[in-house]
């Protein structure tokens, strides 16, 4: 069974209509904590949320030990998050879990990035025909963001790719395509902000080498990366353009390197066909001729 990593956004649910699960008998609301302020408190609060999310729930002591924050500070900040519905306190298990308001924030994020139904359909078709995880990436401000993924147990996505991933453009096929769509100044700013970190032994970390590769990609209109992002995995991508000829996104696939070598020509053809269809959609509103 295939899985996707974006909400169906043609008619997104209003945050006000989302079901709000009542507090169960083993969930307790904590009293309002003292007021907190300051950048340091905000940073600590966000770090606490991330730890709770990563662990699927955590006690105040576990968070304190993991982050190195004093236990009273952690407990005070977690009380604030419970009061604001960003965390819930599971009394019976003596731990904190994510609250319901975070779901509403996630729904709003999906709505803002908004993947059209036509894009979702074409990426799902690419996944089926290529027998590989399939992706759509787009610009969001100065970032290159993965906005939709279709995969399955037989063709899983790359870890850590998920909706909203916006790192490592220098090491991903879709990222390289999107870098070619930037002006020289935009690319300079992006790479200065994100750097060229080495993710595998094959990752390109030299700016000159990357620029030469991007020139080749601009001419061929297809990007391949072989184990630059994840060892043992190969990715490919082709750009999607609007009516002005500007790059607005890229379609991509990923698969195990040992299964993809003999299929590169077919996969490239599928990518080009999918990108051509989506380019027609962004030009005219219709994928098909």
From TrEMBL:
<dbReference type="InterPro" id="IPR005471">
    <property type="entry name" value="Tscrpt_reg_IclR_N"/>
</dbReference>
<dbReference type="Pfam" id="PF09339">
    <property type="entry name" value="HTH_IclR"/>
</dbReference>
<dbReference type="InterPro" id="IPR029016">
    <property type="entry name" value="GAF-like_dom_sf"/>
</dbReference>
<dbReference type="InterPro" id="IPR050707">
    <property type="entry name" value="HTH_MetabolicPath_Reg"/>
</dbReference>
<dbReference type="InterPro" id="IPR036390">
    <property type="entry name" value="WH_DNA-bd_sf"/>
</dbReference>
<feature type="domain" description="HTH iclR-type">
    <location>
        <begin position="39"/>
        <end position="100"/>
    </location>
</feature>
<keyword id="KW-0804">Transcription</keyword>
<protein>
    <submittedName>
        <fullName>IclR family transcriptional regulator</fullName>
    </submittedName>
</protein>
<feature type="region of interest" description="Disordered">
    <location>
        <begin position="1"/>
        <end position="20"/>
    </location>
</feature>
<dbReference type="InterPro" id="IPR014757">
    <property type="entry name" value="Tscrpt_reg_IclR_C"/>
</dbReference>
<keyword id="KW-0238">DNA-binding</keyword>
<keyword id="KW-0805">Transcription regulation</keyword>
<dbReference type="Pfam" id="PF01614">
    <property type="entry name" value="IclR_C"/>
</dbReference>
<dbReference type="InterPro" id="IPR036388">
    <property type="entry name" value="WH-like_DNA-bd_sf"/>
</dbReference>
<feature type="domain" description="IclR-ED">
    <location>
        <begin position="101"/>
        <end position="284"/>
    </location>
</feature>
């Amino acid at each position: 069974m295939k899985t996707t990593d974006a909400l169906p956004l043609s008619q997104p649910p209003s945050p006000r209509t989302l079901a709000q699960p009542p507090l169960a008998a083993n969930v307790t609301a904590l009293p309002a904590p003292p007021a907190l302020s300051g950048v340091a408190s905000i940073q600590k609060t966000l770090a606490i949320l991330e730890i709770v999310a990563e662990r699927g729930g955590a006690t105040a002591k576990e968070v304190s030990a993991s982050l190195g924050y004093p236990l009273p500070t952690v407990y005070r900040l977690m009380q604030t998050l419970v009061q604001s519905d960003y965390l819930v306190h599971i009394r019976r298990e003596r731990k904190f879990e994510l609250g319901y308001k975070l779901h509403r924030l996630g729904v709003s994020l999906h709505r803002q990035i908004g993947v059209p139904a036509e894009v979702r359909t074409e990426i799902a078709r690419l996944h089926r025909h290529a027998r590989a995880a399939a992706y759509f990436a787009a610009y969001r401000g100065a970032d290159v963001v993965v906005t939709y993924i279709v995969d399955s147990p037989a063709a899983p996505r790359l870890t850590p790719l998920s909706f909203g991933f916006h790192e490592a453009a220098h090491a991903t096929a879709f990222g390289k395509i999107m870098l070619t769509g930037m002006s020289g100044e935009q690319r300079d700013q992006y790479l200065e902000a994100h750097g060229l970190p080495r993710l595998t032994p094959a990752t390109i970390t030299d700016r000159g080498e990357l620029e030469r590769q991007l020139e080749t990609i601009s001419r061929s209109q297809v990007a391949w990366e072989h184990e630059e992002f994840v060892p043992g995995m190969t990715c490919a991508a082709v750009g999607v353009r609007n009516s002005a000829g500007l790059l607005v996104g890229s379609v991509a696939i990923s698969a195990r390197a040992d299964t993809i070598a003999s299929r590169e020509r077919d996969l490239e053809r599928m990518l080009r066909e999918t990108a051509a269809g989506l380019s027609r959609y962004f030009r005219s509103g219709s994928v098909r001729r």
